[in-house]
Amino acid sequence: HNATDILTLACLAGIVPYAFKDPAKASLKRGTLKHGAEMAGIARWLREAGELEQALVLFRRAIEAGLKDDLLFRTMWDIGMLERRMGRSPLETWTNLASCRNDYRVKALEELAKHYEHREKDYVRALEITREARELGDSEEWKRREERLGRRFTQMNADRKKRRR
């Protein structure tokens, strides 16, 4: 196994510097990054180094190249968090993650509920998402969120009635 390790390190010595120099192009060149998992790994390094735009591009290319489900969902989560960090809307990413069974589904539902409650002020939609999340995995936090949204919805309806008078 030591010989395999040495051979692997020699291969990496030829690939990694090029990939870090221009990761977006490295993923397209033959003989460099071929697999989505490699691209996602380098994208995480780039994100930690503060190269957010390059990381986002490489995360997306990793998905296009193909990933196993567990890594696919993790990479989608990483994209959503990166989009949010960069001031972009991760709404599509959260919606996609929330739409199927995966380890990040409840987290994505939480992000969607926050979005609709705080940004859109769409308490009905936020309440629907919260109830969906509670069906998947209930907690005190979800219960409090549902109660708060219920109060906001009730208050919103009361305010509407007053304005009509």
What does this structure look like?
- The chain has 165 residues and is an all-alpha fold.
- The protein is built from 9 helices and no strands.
- The longest helix is centred in the last third of the chain and has 25 residues.
- It starts with a helix and ends with a helix.
Rg calc: 21 Å
- Percentage of residues in DSSP E strands: under 5%
C-alpha geometry: elongated
Low-confidence stretches: none
| Relative helix content | over 70%
Report the sheet with the most strands, covering strand number, pairing sense and barrel closure: none
N- and C-termini, Cα separation: 80 Å
Number of strands: 0
Tally of individual helices: 9
Structural class by SSE content: mainly alpha
Q: Compute the average pLDDT.
A: 84
Q: What is the H/E string?
A: HHHHHHHHH
Could you provide a short overview of the structure?
With 165 residues, the chain is an all-alpha fold. The chain contains 9 helices and no strands.
Keyphrases for this structure?
mainly alpha; 165 residues
Q: Topology, please?
A:
Elements: H1 2-21, H2 23-26, H3 36-48, H4 52-65, H5 69-85, H6 91-98, H7 105-119, H8 123-136, H9 140-164
